[in-house]
């Protein structure tokens, strides 16, 4: 009689463990499904944002290209002026470095 009670309790514990396994696997599957949906939504949002930014950049490039086509002389003059200014700034920065120290100031 004691063994039958013990076997019945063991059977009940096994059933409870199987039920727990089922519940845990179901909840895990729900959690991974939620995470997967969140990741897909995030990637979709990032793709939409990247597409919008690419369209904005394309529109800006088209606007610049149309200005260059309409005014090629002004564009080349502007670019030459910017090049001269860049060269002048580079020359001034290169010459503004402090003079090298005399050899008397070395410690060795």
UniProtKB/TrEMBL annotation:
Residues 3-30 form a coiled coil. The chain crosses the membrane at residues 74-94. Keywords: Coiled coil, Membrane, Transmembrane, Transmembrane helix. This is DUF3618 domain-containing protein.
């Amino acid at each position: 009689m004691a063994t039958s009670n013990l076997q019945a309790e063991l059977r009940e514990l096994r059933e409870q463990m199987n039920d727990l396994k089922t519940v845990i696997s179901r909840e895990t599957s729900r959690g991974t499904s939620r995470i997967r949906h969140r990741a897909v939504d995030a990637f979709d949002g990032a793709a939409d944002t990247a597409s919008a930014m690419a369209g904005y950049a394309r529109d800006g490039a088209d606007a610049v290209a149309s200005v260059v086509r309409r005014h090629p002389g002004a564009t080349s003059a502007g670019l030459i002026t910017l090049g001269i200014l860049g060269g002048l700034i580079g020359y001034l920065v290169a010459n503004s470095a402090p003079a090298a120290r005399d050899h008397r100031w070395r410690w060795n």
